[in-house]
Write a structure and sequence with these properties.
Layout lengths: L12 H18 L8 E9 L2 E4 L1 H9 L6 E10 L5 E10 L6 E11 L5 E10 L12 E10 L2 E10 L3 E11 L4
Parallel strand pairs: 1-6
Antiparallel strand pairs: 1-2, 3-4, 4-5, 5-6, 7-8, 8-9
Length: about 180
């Protein structure tokens, strides 16, 4: 499967972001290994509270998840007007089971010289205890600081109602160069 990324010249960034999200989950559901080109060496994945840095570590995590088949259904998609901050909520069905698990995912996308984007930060939280310790209501994950080039991200994730991401705070700022 060939991945398409967001065309930076596209004037309708919201539509481009929607295409990116649809493509991401279609690819994830079909063959997670094909997501490798959307991550770089400076990318980070926070998956249910565990951090994976670099494209190889991220790919290893995504391809080692304890299910063979999955199907994502996006319920909400919100993005900044610039298209580079994306928040998705929805549900996922694993291995053909009827019961769906809720998830929340945040993408921070970075433009590339070719005019597309790659995933710099990917926060994923699933409402389940499969393979991870169960979060308690009111548990704060963070702060987490990730640095890449001229951009730092300070992120805090707040967990409510089990392991469902209820609210989040992502603060981005540029470093001053002297």
């Amino acid at each position: 499967m060939t991945l398409t990324t967001i065309d930076r010249e596209n004037m309708d960034l919201e539509a481009a972001t929607k295409r990116f999200v649809e493509n991401y989950y279609t690819t994830f559901d079909a063959n997670r290994a094909d997501l490798v080109n959307l991550y770089h060496e400076d990318s980070a994945l926070i998956f249910d509270g565990r951090k994976f840095e670099g494209k190889e570590a991220i790919l290893a995590k995504l391809t080692s998840l304890p299910f063979q088949q999955c199907q994502h259904r996006v319920a909400t998609l919100n993005c900044m007007p610039t298209g580079d901050h994306v928040i998705v909520t929805g549900d996922i069905r694993l291995d053909g089971k009827q019961d769906a698990l809720l998830f929340t995912q945040f993408f921070h996308l970075i433009p590339t010289p070719q005019g597309s984007f790659y995933v710099w930060l990917d926060f994923f939280r699933m409402d389940s205890d499969w393979g991870q310790e169960q979060e308690q209501e009111g548990h704060l994950l963070g702060p987490l600081v990730v640095t890449s080039g001229e951009i730092d991200a300070l992120s805090c994730l707040y967990i409510s109602k089990g392991a469902v991401l209820n609210c989040y705070c992502v603060v981005l700022f540029s470093q001053l160069k002297g």
